[in-house]
Amino acid sequence: MPVLINAKKDRLVAFLSGEIDHHSAKEIRSEIDISIVKNAPSLLEMDFSGVSFMDSSGIGLVMGRCKSMNACGGRVIVKNVSPEIQKVMLLSGLDRIVTISNSSLQKGV
Amino acid sequence: MKILNEMKLIIPARSENEAFSRSAISVFITPLDPTINELSDIRTAVSEAVTNAIVHGYRKSEGKIEITARILENNEVYIRIKDKGCGIEDVKQAMEPLFTTAPEEERSGLGFAVMENFMDKLKVTSRLGKGTSVIMRKVLGKDENE
Asked: Where are chain B's structural domains?
C-alpha cells in the first residue's frame, strides 16, 4: 500500500511510502481524495518519511491535493522529505505553495 | 568517444515499466560508483523521459520504448530514450517549464526541466507521427563540492 491515511478530527495525515511516479501516483491520489471527501479536514499533512524516490509526478500529486484543500479553505503541509526529493520540490517551486517542514533533515543542496 | 559498456532495453510503454527502467539504469551505472545524489539525479531524469513517452508519445497508441545506455570514457553516462509515438509538434514549447498538455492527469509540466537540471546535457529531437528521442549525458565524480 503506497499510502496509509490517519484521520484525527479535522486533520488528515497521509503517510506515503515507496516510490512515487506516474504509475503509483494514481492510486495515492485517489486514496487521499476519498479521505478528503469523507473527512473534510482543514489540514492535510503529507508525510514523505517512507518515500525513497519521487519524480515530477509527485509534484502534480501535491499540487493537486493543494488545489482541492484550498478550494474548501484547508491547507497542505509536506513533511519529512529527503534531500533528493526536496531537490525536485525546490526545482518546481513547490515550497512557494506549501509549507515543507523537515524535522530531522537538513537540506544540503 | 570510446564506449566502455553499453546496454539496450526495449519495453512496452506501460506505466509499471517506469520503475523497472530507472532500476535497470541504476544497476547498469553501478560500476561507476555514483554518489547518492548522482544516482538519484539519473533515476529521476530517466523516470521523467520514460513517463513522457508513455503519457504523451503513446497517448493514443501502444508501442515500445527503446532505452540505450552507455558508459563512456571520463566517467560519462549516456542515455537515450526513444519512442515511435506521436512526436512533439513544438519541442521548444514542450520544454518550457510548466507547459503541459495533460493537466487533467496532474502532469506538472516539469519533466524536461528536471532532465535539464539533473543531467549535464539534454537533447530532444522529435518528428510528428514518427516519435521522439531524448538524449541525456552526465559526467559522474564531480559532485564533491556541490
From this structure: 3-139
> Which domains are present in chain A?
3-101 (3.30.750.24)
What's this model's pTM, rounded to 2 decimal places? 0.93
The residues of chain A scoring below 50 in pLDDT are 105-109
ipTM (interface pTM): 0.92
Distance of residue A103 Cα from the nearest chain B Cα, in angstroms: 21
Q: How far apart are CA B141 and CA B38, in angstroms?
A: 8
Where are the strands (E) in A9-92, listed by range? 11-20, 43-54, 75-79
CATH architecture observed for domain B3-139: 2-Layer Sandwich (3.30)
CB of B44 less than 8 A from some CB of A: yes
- Residue B57 touches partner A, C-beta closer than 8 Å: no
